[in-house]
Design a protein that fits this description.
Blueprint (H helix, E strand, L loop, with lengths): L2 H11 L5 H9 L6 H11 L6 H13 L1 E4 L7 H12 L13 E4 L4 H8 L5 E5 L10 H14 L3 E5 L2 H5 L3 H15 L3 E5 L8 H13 L4 E3 L11 H18 L4 E3 L7 H14 L12 E3 L2 H14 L12
Parallel strand pairs: 1-2, 1-8, 2-3, 3-4, 4-5, 5-6, 6-7
Helix pairs in contact: 3-11, 4-12, 4-13, 5-6, 7-9, 10-11, 11-12
Pfam families: DeoC
Catalytic activity: 2-deoxy-D-ribose 5-phosphate = D-glyceraldehyde 3-phosphate + acetaldehyde
Pathway: Carbohydrate degradation; 2-deoxy-D-ribose 1-phosphate degradation; D-glyceraldehyde 3-phosphate and acetaldehyde from 2-deoxy-alpha-D-ribose 1-phosphate: step 2/2
Length: 319
């Protein structure tokens, strides 16, 4: 890290000590050009990838999937089956890579841990009163600690959107800091719930706030509100992590989640990553897809490329 980056990181770390300082910094960030962001995202979505490059992109996208089930009807049997699929997405093809992680509720973590232990597939758990985030801080932290103790090595927390939208940035910052501490060695993904933030400027501010507070990833959505991940929102978040690394020397990951269902969609996001932040983020350690149905479409397209024949949608297990 350069001396300039070290100094900048030290200066930015002081922001969390004062509500006024946080507000001044966040509202001093450059505004987002809404038209420009949407046009840029649309333009990147027109790029075409063929043959060998497409095959490589599909395998990379599979490795980036956080295979997710977050339903009230989840059972130990269901999440064990999901974890087994995460390890061998296509049992008929051992060359198919495993996914990045399995993401479940805290109560389901022990059952997934039984399957994934020692595999290299991460175990993510939502926490902090997901999806609303409306619970006392001590409850949120207990939720986090319980998930980590049960075997989660990644925690997906939700920010208090009510506090953020009311301008109580210090409260949001302090909750992220406390949750990061409760994670111990587990990585922390901070869910912004961008569909509730109303503006791209708020998305940029929330992204910076999450990173300043120590988040290892910033994530778009819970998947529980009508508007989830979109290309323009993800573009704004990618620009934020790029600028944050330039300012501090620390790299932060990005996870769009919700509504990404097809191989075509996934490849559009990979193009956006490459064109916006570069190859350093084209790695499951730094970019993930929060998804359930996406994996099956990736597997269908992969089978088509390798065999020349489309597999039917019932060829792979439903998640």
């Amino acid at each position: 890290m350069t001396a300039t980056a070290t100094s900048a990181r030290s200066d930015l770390s002081e922001l969390g000590r004062s509500e006024t300082a946080l507000r001044t910094f966040l509202h001093g960030l450059p505004g987002v050009d809404q038209v420009g962001a949407e046009q840029r995202a649309a333009q990147l979505g027109t790029r075409s990838i063929k043959t060998t490059a497409k095959a490589q992109a599909i395998d990379l996208a599979i490795r980036m999937v956080d295979l997710t089930t977050l339903e009230g009807a989840d059972t130990p049997g269901k999440v064990r089956a999901l974890a087994t699929k995460a390890l061998r997405p296509d049992p008929a093809d051992p060359s198919c890579p495993h996914v990045g992680a399995v993401c479940v509720y805290p109560a389901m973590v022990p059952y997934v841990a039984e399957v994934l232990r020692g595999s290299g597939v991460h175990l993510a758990s939502v926490a902090t009163a997901f999806p609303s985030g409306q619970a006392p801080l001590d409850v949120k932290l207990a939720d986090t600690r319980a998930a980590v103790e049960a075997g989660a090595d990644e925690i997906d927390m939700v920010i208090n959107r009510g506090a953020f939208l009311a301008g109580r940035y210090q409260e949001v910052y302090d909750e992220i800091v406390a949750t990061k501490e409760a994670c111990g060695d587990a990585h922390l993904k901070v869910i912004l719930e961008t569909g509730e933030l109303a503006t791209y400027d708020n998305v940029r501010r929330a992204s910076w706030l999450a990173m300043l507070a120590g988040g290892d990833f910033i994530k778009t959505s819970t998947g529980k509100v009508p508007v989830a991940a979109t290309p323009p929102v993800t573009l704004v978040m990618l620009e934020a992590v790029r600028d944050f690394r330039a300012a501090t020397g620390r790299q932060v990951g990005v996870k769009p989640a919700g509504g990404i269902k097809t191989t075509k969609d996934a490849i559009k996001y990979l193009v956006m990553v490459n064109e916006t932040v570069g190859a350093d983020w084209l790695d499951p350690d730094w970019f993930r897809f929060g998804a359930s149905s996406l994996l099956n479409d990736l597997l269908m397209q992969r089978t088509k490329l390798t065999t020349g024949v489309y597999a039917g949608p019932d060829y792979f297990t439903l998640d």
